[in-house]
């Protein structure tokens, strides 16, 4: 295990690896493994999510302990740029790079975009407005120069929103993985179960366990 | 004017300029001009489109003669990979780079994503299925490794769909400009006027005439 290499698992963007940020420790072996993987675009219906993806996520019990540590200030508290402590609509704004932040919600019952309904609109609009304000104050970047989006599939199943400068060529802002916060809000305003029912396309590496589930079910 | 430099106008991706492809001739001055522009994210409601964007597009009368030349085989016919000649649902599949193609529709009455309604579903699903087939035959790339999307704002106001390999780090596939074809089809199936009414976010350079219109209207 080499001293401290951190690898971000954006399957599409390993040519941006020099841009990648700190999420989880990785060995040289990991780095190599992720460099040479084929990628497939999966289309997941709402039913596929319930029958394939949700059981897979649950069976893996991916740890989000490191997220809880951030929320509880047990780790990397110096990277917290802003906090709204409200248990329902609050979040921590966490700096990954100069122009790359994430809003991590305090609620622990929202795994991803798929769980969002109109019930979560106050949470999402709060993240948008207070996140924009905090970034303008802290970095002088006006809202019109910000890109705010969610990933699906996310790297970890605890709801978070990405904030990057429009002028920053962020990894992971590609259309097949990113969903603009403004679109998410708009779609939920029109239809509370939009993300429960819609088909969502996302890329998976050839060695991803979830891809195997889709293959076994004849969905690829 | 230098011999034949071609520049693609993806404001977000000038660090990808080495990847750019042939659309319209550019001088060295153009290249420099586009290298140093601030970029802003505009949110355009359906009303903004009708009041600001559509009059602007019309007043500029951007030429799409070069597109018509391709459709009529008067130019670059050797780059046509496939054609469906149907006047309503047909298109030309045109190769820009090895792993980057565009489907240009034969219809001349659809400017962009904003004009699409459920009336255009046969066109869009035809582009998807015949485009996928042609690319599989010609390049051996299966549909699951393809990314198909539309731009809004597009570079030119004649409907076209982008086809890239998932593994190709294409310029212009960023979430704030690209709309997955599968999402467009799905949204139109649920609501024929989805793209007439929704708000669409897109990036504009500081020197874009359209940005000035939004500024003058107090929308920025």
TrEMBL record, chains A, B:
Top-level taxon of origin: Eukaryota
EC number: 3.6.1.59
Keywords: Hydrolase, Nucleus
GO cellular component, one term: P-body
Pfam families: DcpS_C
One Gene Ontology biological process: deadenylation-dependent decapping of nuclear-transcribed mRNA
InterPro entries: DcpS/DCS2, HIT-like_sf
Family, as annotated: Belongs to the HIT family.
Protein name: m7GpppX diphosphatase
Organism: Sinocyclocheilus anshuiensis
Gene: LOC107671566
